[in-house]
Amino acid sequence: MTAAQWCDILDELAEAGVLWLLFTGGEPLVRPDFAEIYMHAKRKGMLITLFTNGTTVTDEVADLLAAYPPFAVEVSLYGRTAPVYERVTGVPGSFERCMAGIARLAARPLLLRLKTPLMTLNRDELWEIKAYAESLDVEFRFDPLLNAGLAGSPEPAALRLSPEEVVAYQLAEPKGRESWCEFYERQAEVQFDRDRLFTCGAGVRSAHVDPAGRLSICMMAREPSYDLLRGSFREAWDAFIPEVRRSTMRSDARCRDCDLRAFCDNCPAYARMETGDPCGAVPFLCEVTRLRVAAVAQLTQVTE
What we know:
Layout: H1 3-16, E1 20-23, H2 34-43, E2 47-52, H3 59-67, E3 72-76, H4 82-89, H5 94-106, E4 112-117, H6 126-135, E5 139-143, H7 163-170, H8 174-187, E6 208-209, E7 214-216, E8 226-227, H9 233-245, H10 268-275, H11 283-303
Parallel strand pairs: 1-2, 2-3, 3-4, 4-5
Antiparallel strand pairs: 6-7, 7-8
């Protein structure tokens, strides 16, 4: 879409009462008209979070953000050294550009966060990345649950850690252990309709708009979608999204009656990318959930 089309959609979002806005991608800063779109959202009073890989953060971009601050800027950092970082990106020189971008952001009065998608290519540098974030006094998080590509490509999944490693990393630190124990305590009380396909907050608190103006229930679940260039956001939010939320789980779906469903990271979007079926079970997530439930149960017993 053009900047003008984006601004028209932002007008509709603001009129509907949207407050929180996330700019993500891909890489949003590759748009030459990013500043125009960003400032339009700022003028509408939206609280903006920007996801970027940092490689295109110039002094001009950093100055814009400092002058008109977003709520937060989150940079993905794929490694602490050039060989590891560029093994992930496949782009020579990208590590140096990323570090320069982070330095520019850190030098300005912005809420900066760093994060790492954890995989076989960079796991050996995880704690070095964390230490670097701490040296900048910024928040850091990592995610070892790599999903397949949006179009179903299995290539990202080939870089996953084993389920045992995923759980070990998630519970490696006191803060992580505490967070997961609290999560399981909350989820143990959750009662939801097992026939419902979507049990998360997608379409309740949030939705996603892609570069062509198609609105979907979340960033990972791109279908079904609603064309905002042919209809309005209000129509989409009031009629289309609720219809998607009413989607049901097939009666023969393995996940439907699983006792661990409330604790599992699987969702219709993840399942569709992994199996081609929004009701499909993802063996990788099944095993991660089983191991994590057992580990957390043991931790809880020890604590008690």
